[in-house]
Design a protein that fits this description.
A: about 260 residues; 12 helices; B: alpha/beta; Rossmann fold; Alpha-Beta Plaits; globular
């Protein structure tokens, strides 16, 4: 409860800050809209030539794009402002010292000290595309399918955060190593259907870097409902990612000797 | 009961070493060598509730490491620390709600884009401060620290002195029982440092908080601490009242004398003349000889004024840091 209150407070404070810059809000909305429109246009061009892409129909790919956009919005709003630059700001400049002496879990404080609420526009745009894609789907997904989709989006959010923590934790061993931009580049691969990749890559993106559970898994749950194995597999992957992040973070903290000065 | 008990505390860092040169750099890729640096060794002391203690020592003496160990940032290599009945490095929530570490090098942690007031509100939620206590504490801190004009400014836009005032407000809002102050006036101009010192003296007097202070500025120590713990090479070299430090560590006293006819020759074999300003002389005299030398000078010179003083804390510490005890 306290963590929820803290999260709400920090988001509300960031929102108050962000709303003072109206021009930024307009630009963020326009840029997100343009980027999304160009992605959708590419998809429509592809589907004007073919009926299926690696077994995925046009409505399914639209749901995938919307889900990816939504999750990208979550990542840009909550994960990036806190974990990008963690090796410099947190470890080398000593902000972690500050969090360690606060009465709340350090992993939570490091992850949710601030936010970029204007990027939330992406979340809304993504959701609109998901609805548009689902509306044109031949399966006509019901409430159950939307429930499974929402659950897997939550799982994907947790997985994204856990992978961000894992990359950030490497700074405890190599303080000059900032892999968040690498995480960002790899993340972009999640925007395509997992089936598009050759089998070795697909396995890599499922079992090593859990990209397949980011956008593909929720999309499947919505567009092709009725697969408990998919649901359980994605949730298990999320649990494993969160567990790994916690273990590595704790191991890193044991090595941490504080910033100098 | 003591607020802080430190017993046989030691902390060793393992740091990589390599010789100079390109060859050594390549060799260190495959064969890394380390050396152990003992930052704190066998440190023991106790601090009763409400006491304000100065933890002094030269650069690299182990003060900051000791502060980090006592506040819970670091695990020691050996020994134990008890702060308010807690082991600091376990970082239990009730412990963290009762202590604060304020560092002059980083007065404000957290998101720097937030305003001072936003950050204070976040502290209220983080520390679960009831509304009435929050408003009363905030009003008091605004008054004592002159925070009014800063409340709506972003932390990152503040000057160092303003950041320190904001940092103190953020740390004291939840009324910690033990306060670790690591160089609180570092880099501040005279007015800002005086304001911080005045505030800390007032706050500690009112709140009865236990304070451990490190500082290289003797004015901080003299205005706030009655007890000093002098640390060098990770060990306690002196632990006692501020007033006794000079007597114990300096075998000399200062004799200031104004004598218009005096020349350097008058002091030869009697005392060591360390400075002269017009007709005034500053002499360094062994403690045991002070009465004899004073009597000698009064009988041999036409003295207008004479004063016997303890050497300044700065002078004593400078000698101890350079020459040891």
């Amino acid at each position: 409860m306290k963590l929820l209150k803290l999260f709400a407070t920090s988001f509300s404070l960031s929102l108050r800050q962000a709303l003072t810059f109206r021009a930024n809000l307009v630009f963020d909305a326009v840029l997100s809209g343009v980027a999304l429109a160009s992605t959708i246009a590419t998809v429509l061009i592809i589907f004007s030539r073919t009926g299926r892409l690696a077994g995925w129909t046009q409505p399914e790919v639209l749901v995938l794009i919307g889900t990816f956009e939504l999750l990208s919005g979550v990542k840009t709003t909550f994960v990036d402002p806190n974990l990008a630059g963690f090796p410099t700001r947190g470890v080398r400049q000593g902000q972690l010292d500050h969090h360690l002496l606060q009465p709340a879990p350090s992993m939570f404080l490091v992850s949710f000290a601030t936010a970029a609420p204007l990027a939330g526009v992406q979340i809304l745009l993504g959701f609109a595309v998901v609805l548009a894609g689902a509306g044109t789907s031949a399966h006509h997904p019901g409430a159950g399918a939307f429930g499974a989709w929402a659950l897997l989006v939550l799982a994907a959010t947790l997985t994204t955060w856990a992978v961000g923590i894992l990359f950030a934790s490497l700074a405890f061993w190599a303080p000059r190593l900032d892999l968040h931009s690498l995480f960002g580049s790899v993340w972009q691969l999640a925007r395509y259907p997992a089936d598009l990749y050759a089998r070795p890559l697909r396995r890599l993106f499922t079992y090593v870097l859990p990209l397949a559970v980011i956008a593909s898994a929720p999309t499947r749950a919505l567009a092709r409902p009725g697969s408990p194995a998919l649901l359980l597999g994605a949730l298990a992957t999320t649990a494993a990612a969160v567990l790994a992040a916690t273990v590595v973070w704790r191991a890193g903290l044991r090595r941490y000797t504080g910033a100098g000065g | 009961m003591n607020a802080v008990s430190v017993d046989g505390l030691s902390m060793t860092y393992r740091v990589p070493v390599r010789e100079a040169g390109l060859k050594a750099a390549f060799r260190s890729l495959v064969h890394r060598r380390y050396r152990e640096v003992q930052a704190v060794r066998d440190l023991s002391f106790e601090i009763p509730h409400g006491q304000v203690v100065g933890l002094l020592g030269p650069n690299g003496a182990g003060k900051t490491t000791a502060m980090k160990l006592m506040s819970g940032l670091l695990h020691p290599t050996a020994g134990s620390v008890d702060v308010l009945g807690f082991t600091p490095w376990q970082r239990r929530t009730p412990f963290l709600k009762q202590i604060a570490l304020v560092r002059g090098s980083r007065p404000t942690g957290g998101a720097q884009e937030l305003t001072v007031l936003d950050s204070l509100q976040y502290q209220r939620v983080l520390y679960g401060i009831p509304d009435t206590d929050y408003h009363a504490g905030l009003d008091e801190l605004i008054g004592l620290l002159g925070l009014g004009p800063l409340l709506h400014r972003q932390l990152r836009a503040l000057s160092l002195g303003q950041k320190m005032r904001a940092g103190l407000a953020l740390s004291l809002l939840y009324r910690p029982k033990v306060l670790f102050l690591d160089e609180p006036t570092l880099g501040l101009d005279v007015s800002a440092a005086t304001a911080v010192r005045r505030f800390l003296a007032e706050y500690t007097g009112q709140s009865g908080a236990t304070v451990v202070l490190t500082s290289h500025y003797m004015a901080d120590v003299e205005s706030l601490c009655r007890r000093l713990i002098l640390v060098d090479h990770g060990r306690v070299q002196y632990d006692g009242p501020l007033e006794r430090l000079s007597a114990q560590l300096s075998p000399y006293k200062l004799l200031r004398i104004s004598a218009p006819a005096a020349t350097k020759e008058n002091f030869e074999g009697v005392a060591e003349a360390v400075a002269t300003h017009g007709v005034s002389w500053e002499l360094r005299v062994p403690r045991d000889d002070i009465a004899r030398v004073t009597a000698h000078l009064l009988t041999t010179l036409d003295v207008i004024d004479l004063a016997v003083e303890e050497p300044s804390l700065e002078t004593v510490l400078d000698r101890v840091y350079r020459e040891g005890l």
